[in-house]
Write a structure and sequence with these properties.
Helix 5 runs antiparallel to helix 6. The protein is mainly α and 280 residues long. The protein has 3 domains: 1-107, no CATH class; 110-181; 185-279. The protein starts with a helix and ends in a 6-residue tail after the last helix. Helix content is 76%, strand content 0%. The chain contains 14 helices and no strands.
Amino acid sequence: LFQRCLIKVLNIDLWKCYLNYVRDTKGKLSSFSEAVGSDAENKKMTAVRKVYQKGIMTPMTNVELLWKEYCTYEMGINQMLAKKIIDERSREFSNVKRVTKEFETLERSNPLKTEDALLVIRRVVLAYEQCLLCLGYHADLWYEACAYLDQTSREYSEKGDAQLAKRFLDDAAILYERALQTYMRSNMLIHFAYTDFEEQRLNIDKARSIYNRLLDVNEANLKDPTLAYIQAMRFERRTDGIKSARAIFKRAREDTRTNHQLYVAAALMEYYCTKDNNIA
């Protein structure tokens, strides 16, 4: 039953259920009861390992969680051997992502040879959506999908179609927001890309709120917010002047997680922007 359903029902909890089933039952089978000592345990570990290895090669939602669990499992058996096994499997696991990239490239090439540009765009966006179902923790995929919608909007703007241009910009904003509310809550790349996107649209207050959301991430999820503070300082200087940038610097100094790079960035900003050597 498991063998028939696992591939058809791509659900991470179903795979975990199967793993628990293998752990609980393999030791009770006759082939195991006949074995003695460590041989039985080795057969059990091999059976569990095979299930993990099959699972991580199956594109499905949250497959990265299964990969992390598999790495923990191998490290718990033999740390010396685990490094070699994980390195080998890591290359195979990366192929899952490589295949999704090729899928996106294929859709962009318009394999149907259709002249309906909107159909091509919908198919590319659908390809990204399918990839994000399986690889939601990969920030580059979120960024590429949003950048594609942004670029599409620019192309329609150049053609004079303001309605479609705005529609694709709004779609990009919605996708950025989805990323921050799900897998990318503490990812700096997506936050910075989103703020740049909103700043270009002249949505300054929205961009500021995105920076504040990143700076409010707790220590457990963001151990070093130094770069976030630096980017926020530069943003405030561009949009609201040096006083607002100094307010961010003051806030950053009170955050015990920040490092020396913050002070270097603030000093350089004062030196080049205000020409005040004393403050710098």
